[in-house]
């Protein structure tokens, strides 16, 4: 027995345990993939405001992201981030269960095996890359030195291709392994009664297994318990109420302070470089449409019909919160600008730098009855960090497109160039 074989002697390794972890990933990873792609669509690639903008033939079919249900983006983004975090112990458990195969020598014995190992390399490398960059993005740490959006998008497609190929190749083995022994019986087996599986074609079972230091029940419980713990420490960021205090892993997940404006802030007024004199008494909202331009101060906006809507605001990092927003309907502003049936609207912020200082809203987003230029939240004026003197809030819209410190709205008519 060589040095590598002596290193991998756990009697737990084998097709059954690998198949159990693999089944969990087979169920959950498609949800992570699908919600990630839906979130890309929510950013509006048809307006060149989803990043990366140039994706070649990987561009998804364009359609106007719906405004109903109003919690749609809250669910898709919350699922994408939360599941991605919760699955980390499962991914690590699965990698541990097949670790000896990564050191096979010679690494390739046939063309079929070469293709299988290539998909395995892309699968393992892809999922570790997506997890690492995703976690760093959640923590606002961009130490990797490249654009997160571009790397995460193309990395997702590489991983997805490898995942599909791996499932096609390994699915028959997974089914056979799960049928090889009853799940309940394995979970009832103690450490003392734990025995290695029979030798398998993939060589997952150790050649000379050592004594068990934990049962298969313990191995499954360790991974499941780790996933449950991460769920408890994460899911509160997507929920309002007491559970938000349990979101200990997320920088924006907990309640940042008391009062009506005491909910998470992604980008503060100081970080945006918006100065107090820009948002004071001299602030004006510029409306453009149909070749006309007009300006309104905050008192003029407050004099217009006010509407209140309880809507969530959700960010790409996974956090979300539902608040009561009050302001002027965007469709009323469009009519005031002379474009009662706009095809789109470009909203610009006082902020002069940053990827999201402007946002284009589709027609359905402008015309939704709950789409607002919000002036107040929870019965009080917006705080500077939440966008005073005015911000956009639209049902199901990604938070970065709910522009704060609004300076201008340009409504485009159906026949505008």
Structural features, described:
- The chain is an alpha+beta fold.
- It has 2 domains: 3-246, no CATH class; 269-412, Sulfite Oxidase, Chain A, domain 2 (Alpha-Beta Complex).
- Helices cover 40% and strands 14% of the residues.
- The protein has 12 helices and 10 strands.
- It has helices at residues 3-7, 15-42, 72-86, 88-98, 111-138, 148-179, 183-188, 216-234, 269-272, 298-303, 330-336, 363-367, and strands at 285-289, 292-296, 307-314, 320-329, 344-349, 358-362, 372-377, 380-381, 391-393, 406-412.
- The strands form 2 sheets. The chain has a 5-stranded mixed beta sheet.
- A hairpin with a 2-residue loop joins strand 7 and strand 8.
- Helix 2 (15-42) packs antiparallel against helix 6.
- The radius of gyration is 26 Å and the shape is elongated.
- The protein starts with a helix and ends in a 5-residue tail after the last strand.
- The mean pLDDT is 92.
